[in-house]
Amino acid sequence: MDRAERMTGIVAEGATPRATVPIQATIERVAAQIPGVSVHVGSEPDSWRRAADIVDNPDAVKDLLDEVCQLYQMDNRQVAAAFLVLGYFWHIMAGATACYLLENRVPDLSTGSVALDLRGGVTFLSPHCWALPGDPDAQHPTVTVVANQQELRERLTSQFEEHAAPLFAALRSVAPYGLNGMRANYVDRLASAVIWIAEQVGDLDLARREVPPLVALARPNARTGILEVEHAGRSGVFLNRGGCCLNYRLPGREKCDTCCLRPLEERIALCRAYLEGNGQIH
């Protein structure tokens, strides 16, 4: 394997395949362990878009808004903008955060290294990642080692921000949706991804441990957090939202069960009903 192959993880045609690069192996294990995470690694599918072609391009963002409106059969551009923030970040956050939570590795999320489709998922195109000193592949040329857990968290959230800042500016220019609303839903999305992954692997302590510091990095003083409820011999960790997705503004729809516009007592009652086995939390 020559130097180019070592650095990219791409083996020249005709060469003998070698072990996959570390982040590729992590993503493959994550996808196998949590089938609901639509994360891929390698080349981008033909119809998908690179984040670099979207985030600071008002025309591209407008196209995504149109896609959201068509998908949900609505013409409310404000609600569509809220849904777009949630949709854009779900696959990126779920995929990257799963790598972080399960294997203490953070993929390269630079906008030129991420391809996505709102319904299809996300593909990480770069072989590079960040990891801790004790990582078994710490010496691999595609791995950058950081000093400690907090620095790894900072690497994760700072890369999300590289998408958020230009995307929100572009979205604000084409839709009647304020930056505070975008920011609140963005942080809610991060916390919801952590909670969902913790539920999928059966380790709610992951959410208890990681939601507070990740939220603090993503938006200091955010109201987003976790809501712990015990009922009928069961305990649950739920999203304590800091923002509203505006779902209730669409005909025939209601506020989410954990909506910050619902009184706390009402949210707790709905969580208790869920713990009794009555329906799902949304």
SS-derived structural category: alpha/beta
What is the approximate shape? globular
The stretches of 5 or more residues where confidence is low (pLDDT under 50) are: 1-18
The average pLDDT is 91
Strand/helix succession: HHEEHHEEEEEHHHEEH
Quaternary status of these chains? Answer: single chain
Q: How many beta-strand runs?
A: 9
Strand order of the largest sheet: 1-5-4-2
Give me the number of helical elements.
8
Q: How much helicity do the residues have?
A: 40-55%
> Which percent band covers the strand fraction?
5-15%
Number of structurally distinct domains = 1
**Termini gap:** 49 Å
What labels would you give this structure?
282 residues; alpha/beta; four-stranded mixed sheet; three-stranded mixed sheet; 8 helices; 9 strands; 48% helix; 13% strand; disordered N terminus; transmembrane
Can you walk me through this structure?
This protein has one domain. It is built from 8 helices and 9 strands. It has helices at residues 3-8, 22-33, 58-72, 77-103, 149-174, 179-201, 204-218, 264-275; strands at 39-41, 49-50, 105-107, 114-117, 121-124, 129-131, 143-145, 225-231, 234-240. Strand 4 (114-117) and strand 5 (121-124) form a beta hairpin. Helix 3 crosses helix 4, helix 4 crosses helix 6 (179-201) and helix 6 (179-201) packs antiparallel against helix 7 (204-218).
Helices, strands, pairings?
Blueprint: H1 3-8, H2 22-33, E1 39-41, E2 49-50, H3 58-72, H4 77-103, E3 105-107, E4 114-117, E5 121-124, E6 129-131, E7 143-145, H5 149-174, H6 179-201, H7 204-218, E8 225-231, E9 234-240, H8 264-275
Parallel strand pairs: 1-5, 6-7
Antiparallel strand pairs: 2-4, 3-6, 4-5, 8-9
Helix pairs in contact: 2-4, 3-4, 3-5, 4-5, 4-6, 5-6, 5-7, 6-7
